[in-house]
Amino acid sequence: MGPHFKYLEPPTPELLTYATTLYSRLDDAQIVPPAEVSIGKWAPEPNMCHDNAAIWADNNPEFTAVRGWLYFPLGNASWCRFVAHSVVAHDDGRLFDITPSGVQSTYRFIASGLSDTEFKEVERILIRNFGDAVLDYWHNNQALT
After folding, report:
1. Which of 2, 13, 57, 108 has the most CB atoms at less than 10 Å from its CB?
2. pLDDT tens profile 29-82
3. By C-alpha distance, which of 140, 134, 143, 111 is closest to 11?
4. What's the CA gap between 138 and 55, in Å, rounded?
5. pTM for the complete prediction?
6. Residues 6+ apart with CB under 8 A from 48
7. How many other CB atoms are there within 10 angstroms of residue 85's CB atom?
8. With DSSP H G I counted as helix, E B as strand and the rest as coil, what are the percentages for the chain, rounded to 5?
9. What per-residue confidence (pLDDT) applies to 6?
């Protein structure tokens, strides 16, 4: 499915609560530097961040895959968007984004705070409802129209 340019109301009350929690944790969000990596002939593929992070962590015990969300503030909009994304964390706590991207802008990443099973379920619900793993949050007190 193509990009969505309008607010997508979270499809369940639980996901609205989760989006509220993510928004309240924005102080924890950080820009994750890109890293070019490979294992033999394997290299991370664009748009395959979850698989890339899992493969890298499975083959490099000093790393773990971190599931989370890229935060898009959307300028003057009354809402923001979280897009599912995975990065890797080194044992020393540093995060790296190993998934190639042609995007020139940088976006903040926030860890999901969920188990892998819970994260996959959230993704499944969002994809079923919107065709993409995007979670929007309406962050002002104005009524939706």
Report:
1. 57
2. 999 999 999 999 999 999 999 999 999 999 999 999 999 999 999 888 889 999
3. 134
4. 35
5. 0.90
6. 99
7. 23
8. 30, 25, 45
9. 87
